[in-house]
Each structure stands twice: as C-alpha cells, then as structure tokens.
Amino acid sequence: MKKLILSLLAIASLNFSFAQTAEEIVNKHIEAIGGVDNWKKINSLVMEASIKAQGAEIKLTRTHLHNKAMRMDIAVMGMNGYSIVTQKEGWSFMPFQGQTKYEAMTPDDVKSSQDELSILDEFITYKELGKKLEFLGKDDLEGTECFKLKLTDKAGEEITYWLDPTNYYTLKQSQKVKANGKEMESVTTYSNYKKIDEGVVYAFSLGGDWGDTEINKITINPKIDESIFKPSN
Questions:
Q1: How far apart are CA 52 and CA 49, in angstroms?
Q2: How far apart are CA 70 and CA 49, in angstroms?
Q3: Can you tell me whether residue 100 is helix, strand or coil?
Q4: Region 214-228: what's the mean pLDDT?
Q5: Which helix (H) or strand (E) holds 37?
Q6: Three-class SS of residue 41?
Q7: How many helices (H) and strands (E) does the chain have?
Q8: What b/e sequence results for 146-176 when a residue is b if at least 16 CB atoms lie within 10 Å of its CB, and e otherwise?
Q9: Residue 209: predicted pLDDT
C-alpha cells in the first residue's frame, strides 16, 4: 500500500509540474511579445497586409476596435469586398465569390467570431475566457524542438501552438475548422517578428493554405469612425 501511495503522489506531482511548466512558458511568451501592460494599452488597430496566392496579389486592411468590432477589407482582381463582426451582428460582401450584395452572418457564425474581437494575444486572455491550457511536451518543427501547447475553449474547440524555446515566439498554430460542410485542419505559421508602437511584438510574415501573407504596416490606437462597422454595397 505504501508503494502505491508513493506512486500516486509521484504521478500527481508530475501532472502539477506539467501544469506549472505550461504557465511558465506562457508567462515567458507574454513577456517576449511586450508584456500584459503594453498590450492592454491598445484600444484600436489598423493593419495593412498583402497575400500572394495562385499568382494574384490580395490587399487586406483590418480595422479593429478592441472587444467591440472588426472589419476586414479585401481588394482582389479589381473588386472590393469586406467582412464585419460586432458583438451582436456580422456581415460579409464578397463580390469575387459571386455575391451581389452584403449578407448577414448567422447567429452561430457571429458567436464563433467573438474571440476575433480581442486585439490581445490569446495567451493573455485564455484564463478570463475560461479556456483550458495544456502542455503537450516538445515537438520538432523543421529542426526546432518547440514547446507544444493546447488551448481548449468552453465549447471544446482546440487550438495547438508551437513556441520557439529560444525566444518564446509562436511559430505555428493548428486548429480544426469547417469549410463547405467538411472538417479540415487549418495551419498558420508565423515569422519575422518586429517590435512596434507601445512596445508590443507582432509577426509580420504568416503562412497558410491561402498563401503567404506579409504585413506592411500596423497603426496602433488610431481614431476610427465607427460607422465603418455598418454594411453597405
């Protein structure tokens, strides 16, 4: 019995150690990208980016009011579209997909998009949003032995992250998404980290199935006319 108790204590200690390790990794990640205080100074943001995909260049402009609204403007093939999400509603207008007028998002789509309204890094907000953090050990990512972490929200949606152990930046994230009624894995890679205004650090190069994205400019705390978060054709 004594050996059994000691074994159980060892297992409990191991799980506690893993939990502590996960939190320590996250704390170092947050410090590496500028710290909580600097991130919480950001109330609005405008990001300009471009994507190269299948020989075409797509221009993106993301306009963001923290926890209130987000708009993504998309310019491609001489056409301009957008998607808008607020706390209660959402709309999209994609003429390059055949839409002739804007369409309202379903309540489920609006609900699932609420996390996107936060400007803050996911690891800053996971506790207050009731997400579960897990340390999955280390995993090789193109020759780099990365820390592998997983966040699970209240609905059971999971996102897995690979963090560089040398600087604690996120190098990759993976999650299951639904597209055209099918579940698929969506992978995003991050690189070219730079420190910008307010002392926060962003990845300026992103990769994924959609193509390679380069962020050209980020403006922190600009004044934003909230009327842009209403749909129009």
A1: 10
A2: 15
A3: coil
A4: 96
A5: helix 36-39
A6: coil
A7: 4, 13
A8: bbbbbbbeeeeeebbbbbbeeebebbbbebe
A9: 83
Please give the domain boundaries of the chain with CATH numbers for all domains. Answer: 2-229 (2.50.20)
**How many whole angstroms from its chain centre is CA 4?**
44
Query: What confidence tens digit (pLDDT) does each residue in 168-209 have?
Result: 999 999 998 766 667 778 899 999 999 998 899 999 999 988
Q: How many residues does the chain have?
A: 233
Collapsing DSSP states into helix, strand and coil, what is residue 99?
coil
Sheet strands (E) in 79-121? 79-86, 90-93, 103-104
Please state the rounded mean pLDDT for residues 89-102.
93
The DSSP 8-state label assigned to residue 174 in this structure reads E
> Each residue of 137-155: pLDDT tens digit?
999 999 999 999 999 998 8
Specify the residue for token string 């996911």. 122
Question: Residue type at 230?
Answer: K
End-to-end CA gap in the chain:
74
CA distances from 18 to 11, 83, 190 (A): 11, 40, 25
What is the C-alpha to C-alpha distance for residues 232 and 95, in angstroms, rounded to an integer? 13
This prediction has a pTM of: 0.84
pLDDT of amino acid 117: 94
Of 17-21, 26-30, 58-62, 165-169, the one with minimum mean pLDDT is 17-21
Q: Which helix (H) or strand (E) holds 18?
A: helix 2-32
